[in-house]
Write a structure and sequence with these properties.
221 residues, alpha+beta, Glutaredoxin, Glutathione S-transferase Yfyf (Class Pi), Chain A, domain 2, 2 domains, 4-stranded mixed beta sheet, binds glutathione
């Protein structure tokens, strides 16, 4: 498999963690989100993902779908991780039981729908163009979302967000906390989230997915 991504992209990072947790080997294909206005907008990349965003996972085989399309790759981190979870079920990333799985999706979506899209690069660039301070906006939306997440899980004592094994919710949490630090959000008000982050950091699958360890990190800005 080939993962098109960017070292500092939180959505690419989610997929890296999932691939590592499942022990799947993959090749990194860097897509520089900043250089020359962003390689994600190049026609060659948009042919894969017309949304012009990373990640994109190129699969090792293709399959014809009922729509007639022959699919050989996937966009959207949650669709990618859900696919991997179905094809490589161990370890399960949604947990066991309908309500547990719903809780995992709830916490994941709080981040993937309620926070990250509001502070995505293209949004921040557009705000700047309109005279709004992008860093201030990013801090505001991340602070609101992380405070809601902290309140949602306050008082829980599991090692990870939903139980004793990492799930999709943790996979989404860790990169989002990194983004928050990047924009100098004070994380002191989220002790439960930081506790879970520490548990994740102790796992090799999370550690190896860190931006600084990616092949495109050295030369990128
Ligand atoms: N919902 C998508 C969001 C993808 C996304 O926002 N990707 C960001 C990086 S984390 C991106 O490519 N930004 C480039 C841009 O906005 O130009 C997913 O989960 O994959």
């Amino acid at each position: 498999m080939k993962l098109y991504g960017y070292w500092r992209s939180s959505c690419s990072w989610r997929v890296r963690i999932a691939l590592n947790l499942k022990g799947i080997q993959y090749e990194t294909i860097p897509v520089h989100l900043v250089k020359g206005g962003g390689e994600q907008h190049a026609a060659e990349y948009r042919a894969k993902n017309p949304m012009g965003q990373v990640p994109f996972l190129e699969l090792s085989q293709s399959e014809q779908l009922p729509s007639g399309v022959t699919l050989s790759g996937l966009s959207q981190s949650i669709a990618i991780i859900s696919y991997l979870d179905e094809v490589y079920p161990a370890p399960p990333l949604l947990g066991e039981g309908a309500l547990t799985r719903a809780r995992v999706r709830w916490l994941s979506e709080l981040i993937t729908s309620g926070v990250q899209p509001l502070q995505n690069l293209s949004v921040l660039k557009e705000l700047e163009r309109r005279g709004v301070d992008p860093a201030d906006w990013a801090r505001q939306v991340m602070g609101r979302g992380l405070a809601a997440l902290e309140e949602t899980v306050r008082g829980e004592t599991s090692t990870f967000l939903v139980g004793e094994a990492p799930t999709l919710a943790d996979v989404c949490l860790v990169p989002q906390l990194y983004n928050a630090r990047r924009y100098e959000l004070d994380l002191g008000a989220y002790p439960r989230l930081l506790e879970v982050e520490r548990a994740c950091a102790a796992l090799p699958a999370f550690d190896a997915a860190r931006p600084e360890l990616q092949p495109d990190a050295v030369s990128a800005g």
